[in-house]
């Protein structure tokens, strides 16, 4: 991946690292990504989407995950 002078290369994290960073289980993470009529409260359209990194592998862009976490903290503080 090539970076221009004003950008840094993106850091990709795998699901296990995402689970540790967020303190969420695998099922909760995937529940946030897809609307399930049986559990509509889990879905979060603002949750970062995974990107394909291989034939059967996905990852999340760390910067997007951190921005989502900041947005969640801002909601708690009443800023959003």
From TrEMBL:
Domain of life: Bacteria
InterPro entries xrefs: AlpA, Prophage_regulatory_activator
Protein known as: AlpA family phage regulatory protein
Organism of this sequence: Marichromatium bheemlicum
